Structures are given as structure tokens and as C-alpha cells.
Amino acid sequence: MKPPPPWAMGLALVGALALHTASKDAAHVQEMLWLCHVATAVMAIGLLAGWHRVMAGGFILHVGFGTVGWLLDVAATHDTTVSSVLVHLLPLAAGVIEVRRKGWPRGVVLPSWLFYSLWVLSCHWTTDPAINVNMAHGAWGPIEHWMGGVWLSGAINSAILLVTFFAADVVLRRLTRSRSVALHSAPS
User: Transmembrane stretches, by residue range (predicted)?
Assistant: First the structure.
């Protein structure tokens, strides 16, 4: 079976985001600022515009933070919705398809990590502390008693994410070595 074209996957991601946003009431629409949802939007932009490196940046944000955070939340709360499952799994499928098609580009880790770090800071200043989007106001509930204040928690999260992003980069590079070599050695 032939994989869907990038534009179709981009539109599917936009549709999933719209569906999930529609499921939020006014008090919880800020939850759409969680990095996983922003990463989905970044992936959609990359897929629709044909910017592979942008799509890859969104994908590594999902692999390194979004999916792990979502799975931990589902495990802790025993609660999710159909739109949440869709908006978390569809980007993974689209990312895998596109990375298999075009390989894994170089230079994705540090820009993605900086984006994550700046996004969390912006959420600290713009979101309701009660919702704690991206743990911008404190550590995740189940481990809050082990962490220091918000800034120590943020620094620890940022360091963990940097390691996770580098590990994902190594794995994705190895899994797509032949395509990545072809991508980087092809004439412009």
C-alpha cells in the first residue's frame, strides 16, 4: 500500500487538532498549548509546506516529550478521550511515514530543544497555574514532592529532554541511515 502524500497527512493532523480543540471547554482550551499539540501543528506546517526539517522537529518533540507525557498522564489518571488518542497517535504515524520516506535530517535536536525551553517559559507567563501546561508552573503531580521549585523542576525537565532528544536522534538516524545518506548526498 502506498503511503499517503505529505499534504494529506498534514491536513489529517490539522483535522485532529481541530477535533481535539472542539472537545475543550473555555476553561481548558489552554490545554491546546501543551507541547504535544504545538508539535502536531509544527508537523502539519512542515508536511503542508514541504519543509522536512520542520516536520522532523515536531516529530522529535512528540517522540521525546509529547507521547511520553501523554502516556504517563493516561497511566496516572486512567482517563483519556478518543480525540486525545487521535491527536497523540496520528502525529507518530505521520512522522514515521515521512521519516521512512525522506530519512532523518541533521540538525534537529538543538533547535527543537531550544523551542521546547522557550515554549515552556512562554507557558509560565501565559497559562493558568492550575492547569500547569507543560509543567511550566511546577513539577508533574505524582513526582512533585521529589522536585524542588518550578525553576529546578524546569531545569531538570530541560536536561532530561535534551538527553531524550539526542537519544531519539541517534535511533532515528540509525533506522534511516540509507535514506539519510541519500538525502544529504543528493545534488541540490
Answer: 32-51, 82-99, 108-127, 147-172
